[in-house]
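Input:
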Amino acid sequence: MVDATLDRSGQAMVGARGTKPKKRLSGRNIMLYGTLIVVCLYYILPLWVMVMTSLKGMPEVRLGNIFAPPVEITFEPWVKAWSTACTGLNCDGLSRGFWNSVIITVPSVILSIIIASVNGYALINWKFKGSDIFFTILIFGSFIPYQIMLYPIVILLREAGIYGTLWGLVIVHTIFGMPILTLLFRNYFSSIPEELFKAARVDGAGFWGIYFRIMLPMSLPIFVVALILQVTGIWNDFLFGVVYTKPELYPMTVQLNNIVNSVQGVKEYNVNMAATLLTGLVPLIIYFLSGKLFVRGIAAGAVKG
Amino acid sequence: MADTRPRARWTRNISAKIAAIPMVATATVIFLGGSIWTVVYSFTDSKLLPRLRWVGLDQYERLWSNSRWLVSIENLMFFGVMSLIFTISMGFLLAVLMDQKIRYEDTFRTIMLYPFALSFIVTGLVWQWILNPQFGIQGIVRDWGWESFSFDPLNNPDTVLYGLLIAGLWQGTGFVMCLMLAGLRGIDEDIWKAARVDGIPTWKTYVVVIIPMMRPVFITTLVIVASGIIRLYDLVVAQTSGGPGGNASQVPAMYVYDYMFQAQNLGQGFAASTMMLLSVLIVLIPWAYLEFGGKKHG
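Output:
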């Protein structure tokens, strides 16, 4: 269908690449925008359903249509999801998972960005023998299934006495965030003119001096990109949360899954959807605020270094 | 590189070397060492705790005769092939549509990409709800009067993978579209001018000229998507918990987790994760060879 559209109006399309088309309502445009709008409906639908279901009472959910807006808006499911929904014996809601995710995400993001930015800087400006080999291993490691490294890390953390603790998980997130972030910083630092670095060396600045006085102030945008990438990535993690923490410290995603997929009790779909939406809210807010910086972050992995 | 003063080799760049310790340790101890450790211990009979009692290929024989593992592999192959075909073709078509100098491009992109910012758990749970037979799509169509309408992929072992596919595509195609769009934007405008002068229809220009030119983008996307698919775990846990019927939607990552951390049969977990590693290497090594081998020549 798409090909046919393009075929029929090939000339117009190529022309359109230059200047703005004059005719707005051509057949081609109707097809083009029509297709895009239908596609967008598919993308919006789940978000719409989540919001609508979470604002209905249970009787209305049972009677009505999941796509229909609520007849009577209630915020009770949100309150319940946040403060009284049960996982096993605990009935203090998703708030615990939320705060766990906050105390996991904040130090993980800070630590991983510091380490990865220094890595990228060392890889570009302070190459040492073998540094590129370590970087290659790191990039390869980002494609390898995490499952193969799960157990050796359990052993290392247990030996260090931090298995099941917050800091154990922070270290795990730092390790697995390192490949993509190092790539991101390395590529960015390589675009900073080398003359600046050389001039600073002539003036006697050392490794840290150049990092803090030249590299850091010049690369704030890429730090924001890294921040976005890490906050969403770590917030959305499930596997590491399950493997490396105890139930008291489960992040929000794990707790959400336990609430919704628990087999006990009557299913309260409105509460489940409110809980799901609450968990998705942090990455969604970051996504909608960050705009093109998010795209830049996720595209970093695909750009050849 | 920057330092040419005559000093002992190892003290040269000493701060840089110290600063690089976390990276070196991660690369060697965790990524390389950890992988080798797991492969080595997959040849032992480790149960609750890892121990070095060699049993040769026993774990692998047991693995490949375990019906749950075989189902997992079959599921992953089917899901993987289907989602590669659909994400890449849909991602490319959407990118082509987005590349027509359209208005509101940012709005369209924002809508198509937002699922990618969400957790697989959130994606899985939302689609579980939309596909709910009683209240979801099936229920609504039946309420409209089509009583025999049936659309319940998640509770039927034969169709459960399609249910996962719908959710997976929802989450991933926006991302692929962005990669493809970047690729399309990287193509020289002169190519289009030349094609127009020669009177080649647009669709033909895409097929004959643009797609072959975008080969590197396709390959990179393929590698990223494929290595993500092999890891597939969270989505299945949230949407189907591996069911219905116990193991209709099992995937290898679930097998690994369950044997390592639930069934306390470490050897099986190690053998299964080694197979996962092997499958990634089959994708990765030819790619790395093309990518890095090609760079040296060109």
